[in-house]
Design a protein that fits this description.
Blueprint: E1 2-6, E2 9-12, E3 17-24, E4 32-38, E5 45-50, E6 57-59, E7 67-72, E8 77-82, E9 91-99, E10 105-108, E11 112-117
Parallel strand pairs: 2-11
Antiparallel strand pairs: 1-3, 3-8, 4-5, 4-9, 5-6, 7-8, 9-10, 9-11
Length: 118
């Protein structure tokens, strides 16, 4: 199983970035796919998710109307379009794939750094 993020970088406040995640070694289409982020000294927090089954999309209130999550099951990819970025969006962003009533199948990428300067 492999999950890998890309697309992080440094941007000025108000700018945009697009993160991508690719998964392999598991049935991507049958997993809830999520983006999390973490800053030093704080717990990892959920940013956005597309559930399976159902395809319901959820966003943290802090990113609603600025970030857009999407997935392409044919390509085993997920994206996070981040617009109107703020310094407080600075974090390491992680891709997560999970499945099962107890999330017993739970895979993480290595993370990608997003830095937003004021």
């Amino acid at each position: 199983v492999h999950v890998e993020e890309s697309g992080g970088g440094r941007v000025q406040a108000g700018g945009s970035l697009r993160l991508s995640c690719v998964g392999s070694g598991f049935t991507f289409s049958r997993y809830t796919m999520s983006w999390y982020r973490q800053v030093p000294g704080k717990e990892r927090e959920l940013v956005a998710a597309i559930t399976w089954p159902g395809g319901k999309i959820n966003y943290d209130e802090s990113v609603k109307d600025r970030f857009t999550i999407s997935r392409d099951n044919a390509k085993n990819t997920m994206s996070l379009q981040m617009n109107s970025l703020k310094p407080e969006d600075t974090a390491v962003y992680y891709c997560n794939a999970r499945q099962g009533p107890m999330n017993e199948y739970n895979y993480w990428g290595q993370g990608t750094q997003v830095t937003v300067s004021s």
